[in-house]
Structures are given as structure tokens and as C-alpha cells.
Amino acid sequence: MAKRDYYEVLGIDRGAVNAAIKKAYRNLAMQYHPDRNPGDGEAAEKMKEVNEAYAVLSDSHKRRLYDTYGHAGLEDYSQDDLFRGVDFSSLFREFGLGDIFGFGDSIFDGFFGRRTTSRKGPRKGADLRYNLSLTLEDVAFGVEKTIELPRTDTCKSCNGTGAEPGGLEQCDSCQGTGQIVKEQRSGHSVFRQISGCSNCRGSGSIVKEACKHCEGKGVIQEIEEMEVTIPAGADNRYAIRIDGKGERGDDLPGDLYIVLLVEKHPVFERHGDDLYVQKDVSFTAAALGGEVEVPSLDGDITLDIPEGTQTGSVFRIDGQGVTRLEGTGKGDEYVIVRVVTPTDLGQKETDLLRKFEELRRKSGDSER
Ligand SMILES: [Zn+2]
Ligand SMILES: [Zn+2]
User: Fold this and answer.
1) Which numbered ligand comes closest to the C-alpha of 160?
2) How far is the CA of 196 from the centre of ligand 2 (A)?
3) What is the DSSP letter of 241?
4) What is the b/e burial string over 80-103, where b = at least 16 CB atoms within 10 angstroms of the residue's CB?
5) Residue 118 has what pLDDT?
């Protein structure tokens, strides 16, 4: 498929100044951000297109190339190159879309284009993912959770060597170089073959006395406890990023993504900020109307149903839904009525119903 014009994607004219580009991008991000379109693949695609257009047009060098040669001007740029230099997460934070964004199956696929660390920039450790199970009540009201994060750390006792002090000896096989060099003569040529020493696994030394602290592994497993604040209104598959809590890198640590997995609720079904609940009502109560008790997240509340309520009727209770993550207030609760026919009639009840049936027939006849 041919790529669309970047200016057209952002809906701006070719002379647009940086502020106008950002403003256009902001509006489109608000519209297509996965937060606002959970599970919508089309919106995600749209967002990707918008991200790319913004990445190019907000960079003066890339923009000049694009202005002069069109898409062909950026042909040599990989997807990573196109996106390099734009910090989308801080942009979203600025837009109020925050550190929280909806993810698909993989947190790194799709949304940002491909996510890799820049070859030129500092080398970051891998990002980590932590799945956190929550109830609907947790995310509806917000909650503080303590999570236990297993971490691997260099053993401080032996500095990662795995040996007790003085327990390290030079490897005899490679004389401490970690490499084995083999020379082979063939006519006038000499071939040198260099391979890693298998005796010391290339480290050049042998552990004679294992470190007691880490049992010679050089690393220790630790559990790090961490407090996480779940904001009211978060939803299933949203993620919270905690900077610098991923794996240690050569220069910088990666980030930790806490992915929220909200369990199915036995009573309520959630759609966006709204809650849906089914309420069984006896056929007499449905016919006569009146007050019925319905569950809400704050406990039972009274709902007035009118005379002649039918099965499948839906009633809205304002403000009894989930707190809105963005904006103010709460969603609504929708009560779907199911009229239940009794199956355990006593003799007296049966007699009354027969009488009722007779009356209905008579009144029907007289009306005709
Ligand atoms: Zn150790
Ligand atoms: Zn060796």
C-alpha cells in the first residue's frame, strides 16, 4: 500500500510551524491513542501512521528530506531511524495520556513501531514485564499494591567471580588468556585457529573455592518489594511504566512495565467507564412496578421500575460506574431487567393466577 503524505496524515499544510505540527499530533493522539480505543486494531494502525508522520515532520532534517524528495528521501531510513529522537512517552505524559497506555499481546509490538535501543545512544537493559492481577473493585476505586519483584544481582561478596577471596586460580589450559590458539602449517601458510578455552569457559581462571554467599554462581536472586499505585479508572491490559526498574544495562537500566490484568467480576460487566448488571425481577414486580434493590460498587441501591416493565428493559443509574481515568466523574451503571417466571407455584397461587387469567380474558372480550 502506498504511504500517505505525512502532511495529509496530520491534516496540516506544508508551511506548518512546529507548534502547529505538535498541536495536530496532539489532537490525533487523543483520538487514536489505544487508551481510548482498547482492542481497536484500526485505531492502532492509524496511531502508528500518525506517530511516523509526526516523527518525521517534527525533525527539521528529516522534514527537509521529505519536503525535497518525498518518501523517497527517507528510503534509507529504517523504521528505527524514522522514530529516533522522539520520546513518545513523555509526549503522552504531556498530553495527559500519562504513563498508562493500553497494550496488545506484546507490550513492545505495534504501537511505537519496533522498539529497539539506539545503537548510538546509551545501551539500555531489557524492559521487564510484570503481570498484576486485580479485581474490578481495585481498578474502580484505585488501590495501593505491594509487588514482589525477583531480581538477579551481582554477588557483592565475590564481585561476581563466584570465588572466595583467594579462591581463584589461573587456568592451566589457557594460561589465563581464556583462549586456545592452534596453529596449523600447510605448505607455506600457517593457519591460526582461535577458540574459547573450554576449561575455564573463556574467563581465564578457575574457581578453587566457591563463594559461600552465592554458592559459586556469582549472582544472587533477590526479591525487591515495590509499592505500586493503581489509579482509579485503570482497565484491563493497561500498563504502568516504572522507569529504571528493568534489567540492568551496560549504561542504563531498562524499564519495568506492570501490566494490569483485571479478573472477571461475578456480578458486573465493564464497558469503558460503564458497568452493566443483570437484575432478575419477579413477573408480578415487573407488572406492578415499584422499588427493586440492585447491586452497585458502593453496595445495594434502590431502583424504581415502572409498571409493565418488560424483560430486557435497560435502566441507567447515573454516576454509578467506574471513575474516569481521564477527565472527571464516573461512568454510569446500566441495569438490564430479566423477568422471571415462577416455577414453584403453590395451590393458592395457582388458583389466583387462574382467576387472574379469567379476568384478563373477560376484560379482553369486553374491550372488543
Ligand atoms: Zn559470591
Ligand atoms: Zn582457560
Assistant:
1) 1
2) 8
3) E
4) eebbbebebbebbeebebbbbbbb
5) 42
Rounded to the nearest 10 degrees, how much is the dihedral formed by the CA atoms of 150, 156, 161, 166? -150
> What is the Å distance from ligand 2's center to 173 Cα?
5
Cα(240) to centroid(ligand 1), Å: 34
The helix or strand, by DSSP H or E, that contains position 14, with its residue range, turns out to be none
- What distance in angstroms lies between residue 128's CA and the mean position of ligand 1's atoms? 25
Residue 2: the pLDDT is 72
Number of domains comprising the chain: 3
- Ligand 2 geometric centre to CA of 210 (Å): 17
Query: Whose atoms come closest to the Cα of 218: which ligand?
Result: 1
Ligand nearest to the CA of 161: 1
Domain that holds residue 331: 269-367
Evaluate whether 35 touches 97 at the Cβ level (below 8 Å).
yes
In a domain, 229, yes or no: no
Contact indicator for 197, 173 with CB cutoff of 8 Å: yes
- Give me the residues of the chain with pLDDT under 70, please: 1, 89, 93, 96-122, 365-368
Residues 277 and 201 in one domain: no
CA of 177 to the centre of ligand 2 (A): 7
112 and 174 housed in the same domain: no
Q: What is the pLDDT of residue 296?
A: 96
List the Cα angle 306/310/315 in 5-degree steps: 60
* Ligand in nearest proximity to the CA of 170: 2
Strand, helix or coil for residue 115: coil
Amino acid at site 338: R
Measured from the alpha carbon of residue 210, the closest ligand is 1
Cell numbers for 69: 524528495
Give 222 Cα–ligand 1 centroid separation in angstroms.
13
What is the chain's alpha carbon radius of gyration, rounded to the nearest angstrom?
A: 33
For residue 252, the model assigns a pLDDT of 82
